[in-house]
Amino acid sequence: METRKLIDELAAEVITELERLNYAYNTLCGLRASFKRICAFARDRNVQFFSEDFGKEYLKEKYGCTIDYYLDTFPKKAEQAIRSVRLLGDYQLHGVVIRRIKKRKGYMKPPQFEKALTAYEKECESNDYSLRGMRTRLQRLFFFVDYLSLRKVMGFSEITPEIISDYVISICPNHEKSIASILTTLRVFLRFLYLHGYIKEDLSLSMPKQTKYRYPAVPSTWEPDEVKRMLGAIDRASPVGKRDYAILLLVAKLGIRAGDIKALKLSDLNWTSKTITITQEKTKVEVTYPILHDVGWALIDYLQHARPVCDTPYIFVRLNAPFEAFGENANLHNIITKYTRLAGITVPLGKRHGLHSLRHSLASTLLEQGASLAVISEILGHVDSKSTSVYLHTDMKGLMSCALDPEEVMLHD
After folding, report:
1. In the annotation, is 339 catalytic?
2. Which InterPro entries match (predicted)?
């Protein structure tokens, strides 16, 4: 495979490959026009060969994109141009079209990889990985497998350190945290292939490691007044409002994860002892929560006046027929987004505002009230209190009390 091609030849080859991959007619028309603009830009500057620097120059001059266009926000009109540059760069480097976004139900494993992939899935299941964890782990792995297929690799035994290096280069535009997760997934899988005889060399040793230490982000939290405003925006006279109010209270007051709320069953409620006992989906640990006064009445109101008659054992169900539990992949994000908007709460750019942020707010409130990390860890269902320690960064009053007075230090020097 040639590493350098004339830009117009490279663009023509990319279009041919996209046609082979059955890309939509309108998509092909748009990319052809975009490639023509790039080629014209190259001719004006007497550039014959495509390079990453040329692509960055084109985007910066024509669309005002920064060098790190894949990390920074960019104009909407530049989306097609960025995609075109990435297609040219990927094809020149790898000889394949790398499809970074795939939303396919029922992934079809390439025949040459099916046996090993199926065996790996079974091992993951035997290790009791959560369904959500398995899904993301396998999705990352399928991206790699698709890359191998496009490179005409006919078996895992044909993988080389050079192919691994090329793939790592292809994922560089991802976020640092995503890159770390992908590398970890591939390292574990390659180790599995070696231990089970699918490859003769332990290629997991060829996977690069990130040496840069990443500080965990400070969790996004809500002010108590914002939580009250959001709850107050719910129409509790409607069935949907009764259901959503109960769900949001379970998160805001008890810190229950969204996945556990979806899995909550009628049998988990003990009205005699006023407790909710569940086995957490993420940790597999049994946890008991108190049914607080307002939480209890919200649940009763929903169960008596809003929940439709249905056969499912789950407490929270869809309110449109067929009446059944929420889907496996539902994260309930739309619920909190809906009432945030109704309450007129503005969410700053970059701040997370999903249901999980209400758990963060509960932890921060408890910390400000003097609760220990051990207690907060137990309430949130953390197996390790290290997971809870990140909330120390959100206790601004506590941090301020730890600050030193420079003048006082100088006096005692």
Report:
1. no
2. CB, DNA_brk_join_enz, Integrase-like_cat_sf, Integrase_catalytic, Integrase_recombinase_N, Tyrosine_recombinase_XerCD
Of 91, 302, 339, 391, catalytic: 391
Q: What are the C-alpha distances in Å from 84 to residues 44, 151, 313?
A: 19, 20, 50
**Which CATH number does the domain housing residue 145 bear?**
1.10.150.130
Let me know whether 116 and 179 are in one domain.
Answer: yes
User: What residue numbers bound the domain in which 132 lies?
Assistant: 111-206
Q: Which of 47, 40, 37 is nearest to 83 (CA)?
A: 37
Beta pairing class for 286-290 and 269-270 = unpaired
Asked whether residue 156 is domain-assigned, the answer is yes
Given a contact cutoff of 8 angstroms between Cβ atoms, the answer to whether 132 and 139 are in contact is: no
pTM of the model: 0.51
CB contact set of 319 (below 8 Å; sequence gap of 6+): 239, 240, 243, 306, 308
351 in catalytic set: no
Active site residue 212: no
Q: Mean per-residue pLDDT for 102-113?
A: 71
Q: Which of 94, 307, 356, 360 is catalytic?
A: 356
Q: What are the tens digits of pLDDT across the range 307-363? A: 998 889 999 998 887 888 888 777 777 888 888 888 887 766 656 566 667 776 666
Answer yes or no: do 147 and 231 share one domain. no
Same domain as 195, residue 87: no
What does the chain come to in residues?
413
Long-range contacts of 118-123, Cβ-Cβ distance < 8 Å, separation of 24 or more: 119/196, 120/189, 120/192, 123/192
User: Which residue in the list 137, 257, 262, 360 is annotated as catalytic?
Assistant: 257
Determine whether 356 is an active site residue. Answer: yes
Question: For residue range 243-281, what is the model confidence (pLDDT) as tens digits?
Answer: 999 998 888 888 888 888 888 999 999 999 999 998 888
Quick one: 202 and 231 in the same domain?
A: no
Q: Are residues 335 and 229 in the same domain?
A: yes
Is residue 39 located within the same domain as residue 147? no
